[in-house]
Structures are given as C-alpha cells and as structure tokens.
Amino acid sequence: MTDDRPHHDLTGPPTAPPLVLGPSIGTSLAVWEPQLPALAREHRVLRWDLPGHGRSPAALLPSDGSATIDALAALVLRLADEQGWERFAYAGISIGGAVGLHLAAHHPDRVGCLSVVCSSARFGDPAVWRERAALVRAEGTEAMVASRPGTWFSHGFAQSPAGAALIEDLRATDRAGYAACCDVLASYDMTADLERIMAPTLVVAGRDDPATPPAHARRIADAVPGASLLEIAGAAHLAGVERPEAVTAALLAHLSGTAPARPGDDASRHAAGMAVRRAVLGEAHVDRAVARTTPFTARFQDFITRYAWGEIWTGDGLDRRTRSCITLTALIAHGHDAELAMHIRAALTNGLTREEIGEVLLQSAIYCGVPAANSAFATAQRIFDEIDATPHVDSASHSDTEK
Ligand SMILES: O=C(O)CC1=CCC(=O)O1
Fold first, then answer.
1. Contact 249, 287 (CB under 8 A)
2. Which of 11, 124, 185, 238 is most exposed, with the fewest beta carbons within 10 Å of its own?
3. Is 216 a pocket residue for ligand 1 (Cβ < 6 Å)?
4. Is the CB of 26 under 6 A from ligand 1?
5. pLDDT digit string (tens) for 4-48?
6. What is the value of pTM for the model shown?
C-alpha cells in the first residue's frame, strides 16, 4: 500500500456488484465485521479506514483544520477508480454515511444505491467539533475513551468482546487523523443538498443513539426523494454492532432492490417481495419454503411473495416494526400459533425487543381475549428459549412452518 490512499480490504466474489463500506469516527473497518459475511455473499465489498484510523495514514487529511468531507469523498472515489468501478453501492456509518450522502449528491453517476446508518446531514454545533479536535490533538484519543461506551452502545454492551474491541480500536487511533475527522464534521453540512440525491436511499437510526438520534435520520429521509427509514430498538450509535441482525437484514433488502414495487409488473413485485421476505423471515427459512414448493402449492407461494411481501410489506407507509405489531395481533386474534411463532422471530429481526413483544401480547389480551394471549405468551416464551439455547443462530433462522 502506498501512503497516499486509505487502507482498505476487499472481500467477496471479484465479479460481484461492488459495495463500498465506510466506518464511523474512532473505529476501523472492523466495525463492519458483523455485516461482512452476509454482504460479501453477493457483493465485492471494499471496506476502507478513515485517515489515522485502523491502518490508514493520518496525513491523508490536512492537520491545519481545513479538512473537508469533499477530501474524504475524493479518497473513496480514488479507491473505486483503482478497482475500475464506475458505479457502486455505498453504505456508511456516521461520518462514513456522511461521505455517502456527499458522494450521492455531488457524484450521482457513481453511487447506484446508498445506505446511511446512524448518520446526519449536520452533526450539531461546529464549535463542539472544533473543541473535540483541539482536545484530541492535545491529549490523544484516550480523552474520548470514557465517553464512547455511552455514545456507541446502550447499557452494558461496551463490556462485551465486540464492544471492548472497538474501544481498543479507538485507543489505537492516531490523534491527528481523529482530529482531522472532527474538522471534517465541523465544516460538514449537507442539509441543502439532500434533495439532489437520486440514488435509492435507506436511512437507519438507532433508537437510543445520543450522537445522531432518530430525528437526524428522519431529516435525511424526509429530504432525500423516496428514501426509506428504519429505526432500530435496543441500539445506540454503533447499531450495526449492537443489533447486527437487524442492520444486516435492512442492508440486504435495500441492496437487493426492495424499493417499493408499486407501480410495477408481477415480476418486479415478486423480486421485491422475495427480498423483503428473506430480510424479515431469514434466508434459511425462505430457502426451505421455496424448496418445499410443489406444483400444487406453487401458485400460492407466488401469490404470497408477490402480494403479502411484494405489495404490503414493501410499502413505505409503515415501518417494519409497526407492521410486525399489527401482524402479531392479527395472528393472535385468529389463533394461528405456528404463524405466530414465525412472526415473533420476524418481529425481533424487525427491531422489536422482547419487552415490546410482551407489550403487544399484553395488549392483545384486551382485544383478542385472555386465552388467546395466554397461548401467545407460551409461544413467545418457547421461541425466546429456543433462541437462547442457540445464541449464535440468527433469530430469523427457524423451522416454524410457513405457508
Ligand atoms: O462521536 C462519536 O463517536 C459519534 C460520531 C459522530 C460522527 C461519527 O462518525 O461518530
């Protein structure tokens, strides 16, 4: 590697569609580790390190306070050019997402699909970022270590191996590189440019993110034409680390072109429906349903994929969490226990916590009847126990029956 480009790595089939992943300040490209295996299955993934972070040289950005988002975006374009990628999908966390917004607005021919995770069009008061830059230049990134756990994670997660490793990456970050990224954030303001973005855009927020709270995500999603918004419960700023399955599912669905299918033909509705169905119910589950399809069930399989998933679940009028609440209630009301089990797992994938699922079940006791809710609680407890007994299995990888 020469010293004038960011450190980066490449994963996935060399001929697969390109996807560039950008990290957040204080982290390295390892922050994308939880998503990498799934994303690299069907993409050639390029992850890059911010200047002074991971293994990138700090000198990629000026140290005199003049660093800009344009300079960071130029580094990414350089990496894409080296790969011969005229057009690529881009996903970025926080400042990494800001680079994506900038690229999509100012180089619209380069970004075919955009996802921004816990990011913003403006990261608050520039003076605060200038102060942080000065502090880190004087004292190093150790000065940020005490406050990051509460910003990056909701309670307790910082003590997990994944959380602790990220804090160590912060400690290892070069002070000049970190400070220059603060300068970037001080001068960054995309507010007036969001409406120029034409790439299909997904905006993801962590509900408990104090750095870029959901209101920041809403501002982006409201201004970028056609953007979708997903808020993830039980996650702070590094939502992809804390709630990996929810973020991975959202990115996969977006990358596979699940923009609302209406108006469209049956084929595009089927394709969009299949992608959302996979994102919500899990790859393994849908693979099993497809494998079980017979000539007798084929029309019905096509119908639910195209209609339930391709028309209704793809809609952007309600978020997936809300759709899960409605679906759980309806299944309880009609006593469909096998479908309920499947949709309890789907609700977890869609970002509902166990406590929130419990609230839905409690409320169903009022409107669907106590016996129905009693049976639903038993089903939910069984699913939670199954998940706890196999902690490394994706909550969506289940064997409950689906039509
Ligand atoms: O300060 C943090 O750690 C949160 C954050 C703001 C921009 C970014 O990349 O991370």
1. no
2. 124
3. no
4. yes
5. 899 999 999 999 999 999 999 999 999 999 999 999 999 999 999
6. 0.68
